Protein 1
Amino acid sequence: MPSSDKKRLDYYALTWRLPVIVWQVLFFVGPLVFMIAMSFFLVKNYRMTEAFEMKNWVKMFGKDYFWDSYFLTLLLASMSTIVATCLAFPAAYGLAFKVSGNVRRWIVFLLIIPFFTSYLVRTFSWYVILAESGVVNNILGVIGLGPYTMLNTRFGTLVGYMTLTLPLVVILQTFSLANVDKNLIEAAQNLGASRVKVILQVIIPSAKVGLIIGAVFCFILSFGDFVAPYYLGGSKPPTLPILIIDTTKSGQQWPRAAVVAVMMMVTLMIVAFTAIKLAYSRKAYR
Amino acid sequence: MPESQIVFENIIKTFGEAVAVEKMSFSIEQGEFLAIMGSSGCGKTTTLRMLAGLEIPSEGEIRLNGERINELAPAKRNTPLVWQSLALFPFLTVLENVEFGLKMHGIEKTERRERALKWLDRMEIGEFAERSIDQLSGGQRQRVALARALVTEPPVLLLDEPLSALDANLVVRMQGVLSKLQKELGITFVYVTHSQSEAFAMADRVVIMSKGLIEQIGTPQQVFREPATRFVAEFVGSNNIISGKVSSKHSDVHRTDLFQGVPYTVDTDLGEVVISSGELDLGATVELVISSDRMDISFDPSDLENQFPCKLVSEEFVGSIVTLLVETENGMELKIQKQHKDIENIQLQTGQALWVSWERKSAYIIPGR
């Protein structure tokens, strides 16, 4: 009978989907709900007790250090996104349009290699390069410049963010640029567009979705990164991920840390949602 | 005498080892509708792209209004191209697409808007100005592509198989639109196509290309009735091509025959065939081209010349015209086209014995090389 057939098929499909659903519920939805609930708990005598009070939220929102952290993190992640997007574009443009498909494949492979090494190791390696007695300052010293302080500055943090995000952004941009319809580029040239105008008026609008997705990834990774601001940026003032660690360490304030985490989630959701909406927006609707 | 508007002089284009265009010379007059025809890979699109500046010739010179343009950047020539894929910008509205060329030429906003709208109206798509491209039908997109190319008032319009994606009815309609536009504007159209019907319906002259070489340039009538080479005879129209050797010249020339040429006998695989032609050398190889609409069939032999027994292999009905395929006794296949209305009352059966014949003046002679 058709109806029972359909039912059996549904069970079959469900069986295959079940592991993913169980995994998501156990390790994503569950903790998320718990984290939101925890942000309303209270800590009494260094012990967390179940409650439903707004105290943590009021406390955190009332502190200047929270908002300092919040806007610093927002600023650093935005700067990281802008710098990574601008640095990656010329490289991705070259890979997409100026080299053969074979060369492109090799370079994309090379761009994946950094991910083989631990991000922490890659970050520490910058110490050797950026320290006051490091490689960069030694070279600058030869021509009578410096030494410059690069570690424990925002510059250091940005270098760390680039270590984390730049290869990924280049790869994402390369793929989206390589998919731009070559006919459109020729059509623009044919209609009198200069090289710069072809890039601004045709290539960027055509690759808009991929470019924005690359930027969103960069923002999410930078916003949530703990390593770069902690080890290269000196964590003063702390960014939100560092603030979470500090809060949990001092007086077992897990609920307040949960407030920070929820705020981070909300911010990332708003940013990602707005960006995706922008990426797929169309000028003409009628 | 002033030079033609566009001149190709000894143009060669190679891509690495591959030769796309081999030593090509021809010219295009101002206001002409020229079709470049050939099968895929013959170099017709490369020729067009060289004219647009999207490919640089390896050798030779292209001149536009007497000036060498070989290396001139595509953006610096006013030679818009209508792409086979149309290449409309999907992220712009219809109006913005049409405005694009004007914007690139630095024309300010109100003027370019006005000019673009005028062209949209002219192409009868003014009401879709604010729509996005994916909301249009194939025919409407075609019109947007034309408006976008013509809005800058170019001296030459290049078209690369622009109608190949449309369905048959629409093709005929757009052919009318294109012909009318070209006459009204008085500008040169260079139209690349593989379709004989499109080329013949619109073009003043047709260039037939094969393997990077020009086989023939002429009016549609010329390439249809007087093909210069065996390739043209096979590519254009529906011809029967019979090779043979001139064996004798007839001495009994009647006065009336003189107007049509001298009768010769040619030895072919079919047997002896009588033709009438200009002077031919005895023993020369010739190709006889007999259009399939100039062949006749009958049930019984009569006293006609060039008559051979055959049997019907197949009958192909494509609307008003029927193509009959017959096989002669020595295995040669011949095509015969008849109006359907002329043979609908005759009962033809596959395998039936028939006689095929043609008049001596129906054979067009291509001298052997």
Protein 2
Amino acid sequence: MGATFDLWKLIKTVLFYTAVVFIVVVSVFPFYYAILTSFKQGTDIFRISYWPTSFSLENYQAVFSQGSFPRNLLNSVFVASVTVILALFLAVTAAFALSRVRFRGRGFLLMVILAVSMFPQIAVLSGLFELIRALGIYNTPWALIFSYTIFTLPFTVWVLTTFMRDLPIEIEEAAIVDGATPWVIITRVFMPLMWPALVTTGLLAFIGAWNEFLFALTFTSSNDTRTVPVAIALLSGGSQYEVPWGIIMAASVIVTVPLVILVLIFQRKIVSGLTAGGVKG
Amino acid sequence: MATDVMAEPVVQTGVKIKSELMQQRVRAAQLFLLPMLLALAVVAGWPLLRSIYFSFTDASLNNIDGAEWIGFGNYLRVQTLDSGAVRYRGLLVDPAWWNAVWNTLRFAVLSVSLEAVLGMLVALVLNAEFRGRGIVRAAILIPWAIPTIVSAKMWSWMLNDQFGILNDLGMRLGLLSQKVAWTATAETAMTAVLIVDIWKTTPFMALLILAGLQMVPKDIYEAAEIDGVHPVKQFFKITLPLVRPALMVAIIFRLLDALRIFDLIYVLTPNSSATKTMSVLARENLFDFDKFAYGSAMSTLLFLIIALLTILYIWLGKVRFDGGDR
């Protein structure tokens, strides 16, 4: 009796850890394989291997020396940073108004913000194209900063609103009794408490802007103004049939490693930020 | 909670001061909201209206300013040929459009339902207590953190017909009898897209479901254990009903996301009509085929579909926006 019970328990444990290993391997393997490929040289790339066999930095040198990849990296950093700073700046005051003050039409406003965050980007593409050309910012980073506001702003407002709503009333009470204006309350009382939330939302918005593809593809047209996702998508070899896989993988690794490191450092905060944006409605 | 308290004036020194304080707060709130609303109106509201307007004009890429109103012509128009035969033209009778609609819906339903099931499994594993749980949680964040374009490229290399590792693995394990051109063949292109999308988005689903799972009180399971309820029955009778709200929100978020998919398909299976979705087709018409007005009509229809679903979600999900539920 006892023996069969133990056997059953053993089988369950083995099955469970098999599932765990499977999840980890499937999650990590494509990235591992991209790194593996990026270190291969010449025709080695076309010899399939599951473990590192050779080590060469040739592809990385190629990425940085040919084409405009370094420039694309700088573009991406600039566009994503400015977008995030702008969105946070606009969102903090708006979130205060939406979470701490009761006024007519607040529910409706929150609904509009949520609706905008679900906008299909393609629905505004032709209108944005006209506007961006009229503003004279077509094929500049500003076209992207301008258009990325459409998804970073609603998202940051939404997450910061849910965060501010949960802060206790007591911290505000004392300031109100002292006659502080709402602006002083935001900058002196809330901001110091908001840093963790600002970092999380900022990071998530940064990732969104860093990864964006449709607008970047449409509103830039030259190698020097492109961001990295577009540059990687359009990387091609000498002929149509000759795809430079090694270089593509090296560029992919360069673009992804900073993100993966950031995400792993801010793991817990990101998960809570995602669930605030998603579940709490 | 906090907002309810806020509605009551804090300072109890007379009606006048109270209302003055409240008024000051409301005025400040309006001022604070103004920049954000203005920004949204400029980057979202106006372009949306213009896009819809273009769909009723004859605009072309090089002649946007000179666009003239042509009514519903882009959507549906009747042409009478010289022979007297009547032909219908326009988006609503365009097989390419309906093919894209079908592809989009098929992709959205298949990917989201598979992601929900797999996400639930991953969430259940992560909800159990075991050594190395942190490592698994970190590992599943990696697909989520990788940019879509990069994951599309990584997978198209892995799915490569001649040098791809997946064909090699499949042959070694005896799952494949010959090498498959995953992204190039019409029959397998959608499967390839689904594989990559599921790989990339299941973590998001799992994390949202996990957040719901962690709110289920542990003593319910203890009580069920004492009553001798089978674990499978526990799952269907306790876990599933309790995480349903979190699950539903996650599913609808993902569904809206899947309906507008563009980048993965654009990079992984370019020019394959087996996977071309509404967004891909609309962009192609807008900028590659120089059918600016026709493409605008496509994006307007896609917007309508997503808007309808969003309204349905808000209505069905009974989402409360006034914060009264907390």
